Structures are given as C-alpha cells and as structure tokens.
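Listing 4. Sequential folding, example run.
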Amino acid sequence: MAPGPFMGFRPQISARTLMENENITFEQFDAMKHSTVYEAAAHILPELITAIGQFGTSDDIQLMSDIFANWDGALDGDSVGAIPFLQFQQRAGFGNIFVNPWSLEDPLGTPNTLRDPAGALLACKQLLTL
C-alpha cells in the first residue's frame, strides 16, 4: 500500500507565502523564495517555550526560552537561536516529536502538538552541557 499524501516543511513555506501574499509580482515572489525561515520552528517553538515555562526551573533554561522566543525563525548566520534550535531538534528526535502528523485537512498547521513536552525540556537541558 502506498503512503498517504505528505507535505514537508519547505513546501509549506511556499504554500504559506502564496496564500498570505495573493497580489505579489513575480519579482517579489522570487525574492521570497530565498527566505531562510525555518518552518519547523513555527510548529515547535510555541509549545517548546510553554514547556520550558512549565517545567524549567533554572536560570539557564529560562535564558534558552528567551533566546527561542526572540529568535526570528530564520537560519541565517546571524540569527540568534538558529543553532540552539537545530541542536535541540537533533537531540529531541525530530522524526517522532509530534502527536499529530501532517494532515491534508490542515496542511499548513500540521504536524503539531509536542508528543513529550518534558522530554523536549530534557533535550534543551542537554544543550546546556555542551
């Protein structure tokens, strides 16, 4: 049996760009396609920041929450938060981090819901020991 439909994060960025910018020129679209915004962050960060607020007690982990909250979500060389987020994602086991997988009914809002908020916090704490 063939797997069902799926839309990865990069195509979600393209779809979101087109849906949120109905009246753009080709030149504007061409500029937007070079965006380094990391869509996975939009799906993970709000809940991760909430989990840190609920379960995190140290000043260091709260600082990480502040870094994530102020990150622009881009993967530019000067984007504060990009490297810690990618390291978090690697430690958290990105393939199985969400409760709800991608869905055709909500193509830009899924996947969503952290499977293990306390485990996500543990992955953040591990970053502090690097």
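-- end of first protein; second protein begins --
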Amino acid sequence: LSPIPTSSGMFINSVLCIVTPPVARFHLDAFIGLRVLQGLSQAVIFPAYHALLGKWAPAKNLALMAGIAYPGTSAGVILVFTAGSELDAHGFGSSSDVNYSGDDWPSIFYVFGSASLLVTLLWAFFVHESPSVHPRISRAERTMIETAIAATPAEELQAFSILDVFPPVAFLPARIRKRTAVPWRSIFLSVPVWVMTIAQSAGDFGNYTLLTCVPTFIYEVVGMNIFDSGTYAALPYICQWAISIPLGLVVNSSVWQRSISFIATRKITTVTSQVGCAVFLIAAAYSKTGMFALAMVIVATSFQALFTYGSVINHVDLSPRFAGILFAYTNFFGSIAGIVGPYIADALTPHKTRAEWRMVFFITAGVYLFGALSYGLFASAERQPWAEGEIFDDHDATEEDDREAVVSVIHTIETKSTG
C-alpha cells in the first residue's frame, strides 16, 4: 500500500536526520553510512506519490494535483536555505567537538527532523490508499473519482503484493500471488516507458549539474559565492515554486483542455522545459558577472517547473495502477544520470577555467536537447495494453485449494533455503 512505504520511509528519514549530529561527532564513517541509509529511506517516497496519483487523480485533474503536491519539494529547499542559515547562526546544540564555522549547526537537523516526524504523523492519519478505502470520503465523490479513472473497486485493488514486484517469485501459486503481477517484460520493451526514462535521465543530469555545478562556476570563475546568503541560494527554488501552481491551474483549465490533448500537453511542457534549461544554461556559461549568472540559473530552474506537467506525470497516463512502479523504474536511471553529471563536470574542469566550464555547460545542454527531442518524437499518453498487469485468478478455487497452496509455498521456501 503506497501510504505505508511513504510513511515508513519518512519516519526512518526523520529519525536519521535527528540523530545526525551525535553520529557525525562519533565517526565520519558512521556519518557516511547514515547518509546512505537516509537516501535509501527516501527512495520510496516519490514512487508512492505516483501510486497515489494513479488512484486519486482523474486525468483532467492530474496536472493540478501534481502541481500542488510536487512544488512541496521546492518549498522544503526554500525553508532549509532560509531558516537553516538562521538556525546555523542563532540555533542550539553547538559542540566544540566539531570544527565548523556555524556554531549551532546541529539545530538544523533537530528542527527539520522533528518537523518531518510531525508531517509523517499527519500523512499516516489523513492519507489512504484509494478513495474506496477512505473512511471519510462521500459515496458521491468516491464514485466520481473511480469512474473518471476507471478504477477497480476496493476489494479488487489487491492488485499486487510486494512479492509480485520481484520476478524471482514467479514460482508462487496463483492464489498466493493474488490477482495481478507487474508486467515487467512489457514495461521493459515499452517505447513510451523508455522515452520517459530518457527524458527523466536528461532532466536529472541537467538538474544536478545546474544546481550543484553552476554555483561552483559562479564562485570559481566569476568570483561570487551565492551560498554566503541563504536567500541567494534559495532564489532559484523560490521562483520555481512561485510559478508551479499557476502553471498547474493553466494546464488544468477547461480552456486549455478543450484546445490541447493530453499528449500535446505532455510534449509541450517537457520539450519547453528542457530546451529552456539548455538555452539559459549556455547563457550562464557566457556570464561576466555573478548576478547575471545567478539570474540565468533562476530562469533555467523556473523552466524546470514545466517538467512536472510533462514527463513526470506521464507515468499515470500509461498505467494508473503501476504509476509508482513506472516512476521507480525511470527514476532509477535518472538518479544514476544525476550522480554522473557532477562527476563529469569535475573531470572536465581540472584548471577551473571559463573555457572548461563552457564545455561542461554545452555537454549538459546537449543532454537536455536529446531528452527533449526523444520525448517530442516518441512520447505517448495512451493507456497501455499492459496497464492492468498480468492477471492470475482462479474463481473455482476452494478453501482447501488455498490451504494446499500455502503449504506448497512454505515447502518451496524451506527447500530453497536449505538447498
């Protein structure tokens, strides 16, 4: 169930955030291990968002609901940069054991970790798997949402268990595997899925380069450290957040939806986002002053807001049931690209010259443009033939059959574990 892994991941991440200061004081290796665990705990969050959108967001409202939810990431970054700098200077929890310019840096982790715990509790209480299992939704609203999505009733939404996600459990009897298994082969061979993967990878490659390497370029080449000010560092995210919801309202408007199809909307927003990022990233490479370079970063980051209404929510178009799985699949490759980007930038700038940095920006712009071209040519917003998964059902099975199936599974597991 998507709310459960999300709340679990948020809870683990919150606790790890709170214990970061004492762990950092204890040992560097322990701190690195904690950060790895934090990353793993966060991995479930965005796929779970997509799984929820697949069951709660009718197609005509998908852009608006995503536009309200996803800018929360920008809002969080804004809070960290602005409130975090104040906590660093005027907070609590300082220790002479750690040599750091900000005396009260531990308070950042204590405050934001505690706030995350509070959000986790609210999520666990208010968020439910689907309209059909929500205890406070009206019957009329439930019918409206499920009809719009063409959802399966609650008792059949046992679509797949966590076991069905992994191909190695194919030996399990159909009754134990429930009714639906993830169609991995169809997903792997799907052109629309690979197009989303390319767009996601290009976006993450450019995003991490834009937001980690461009500030380094501004500092090393132009001579301005934008992280001296929490406000300067937060400005790109402030602008991205400020335009995200209005964009969602426009895309969700009846005038827009009467004039432009879903696939046209996905392509327009994705291509415009990635081309805009490429253009203003190159403009930043030719900047003479820090403020101009920062302005180009702000504009490029603002263009990224469009990406939410394109490739990001395209997963729900293809298969509402498996939207979370699809996002996890594409985000896996996107995260790899996002990790590789800064390493390439570092390898190409050994002398930190403007010419070296321009090469980094041109490569990143080329990646953006490749993603835009691929998506513009081959993307699809049609429900895929495999959208409901591979069905395994036996309406004639009896309780005795169920008991025999359970015994068979236990015997198989014991045999594999002892063999």
